[in-house]
Amino acid sequence: DAGVIQSPRHEVTEMGQEVTLRCKPISGHNSLFWYRQTMMRGLELLIYFNNNVPIDDSGMPEDRFSAKMPNASFSTLKIQPSEPRDSAVYFCASSFKGLGENNEQFFGPGTRLTVL
Amino acid sequence: AQSVAQPEDQVNVAEGNPLTVKCTYSVSGNPYLFWYVQYPNRGLQFLLKYITGDNLVKGSYGFEAEFNKSQTSFHLKKPSALVSDSALYFCAVGGGFKTIFGAGTRLFVKA
Fold it and tell me: pLDDT 10s digit of each residue in chain A, 116 long?
């Protein structure tokens, strides 16, 4: 298994541009999570999906952020317009959740975003 | 509400010595408890978890963790530290859909 796949691995863009981050979860996993990590704020949960449905997006910082999961094997996180304070490493993670279970998450390698 | 605390920002230990990274939690009901490790420029990697059963849980790379219900703690331990264990360690508590991660503890193992 290739694990969780994220692209791009690095993204440098200018303020005001649209940024799209992509994630392919592990096959068979039904839960997907987007996190943001910075030195100042640590690891923050942005949004999570179960069976392709967004369950909780309370961690999404602003309306500039949006996430979709059109099918079980693909998710995107979009920032439009981007700002310098969005610079961070963005992680996607997936897990399998059965009824009443909470299993370990498998993290992708992350996308390092720099907004100039 | 669930919460998890890692009281130490950093732990320093000499190679070959035992190490402990501390974690305390707060959760209603039975907890799912996890430890993850993050090496530089990598995503978090799962080390071990506690659901039910034995209070001592064994995981990857020789790590183990001790669940203590009365102290609401889940400390990570290793009998003999390696320089390669130097990394950022996260404790996490899960329930329902959500997993709450601690702030992380940076472990430095000196040769």
Answer: 689 999 999 999 999 999 999 999 999 999 999 999 999 999 999 999 999 999 999 999 889 999 999 999 999 999 999 999 999 999 999 998 877 677 899 999 999 999 99
Residue with tokens 């179960």: A50
Is the distance from CB of A93 to CB of A32 less than 8 angstroms?
A: yes
- Kindly determine whether residue A110 and residue B34, on different chains, have CB atoms separated by under 8 Å: no
With an 8 Å Cβ cutoff, are A91 and B43 in contact? Answer: yes
Q: Give the distance from residue A75's alpha carbon to the nearest chain B alpha carbon, in angstroms.
A: 17
The reply to whether A14 touches chain B by the CB within 8 Å rule is no
Query: Do residues B75 and B65 lie in contact, with contact meaning Cβ atoms separated by under 8 Å?
Result: yes
- Tell me if A93 and B44 make a contact (CB, 8 A cut-off): yes
* Chain B, nearest residue to A5 by Cα: B43
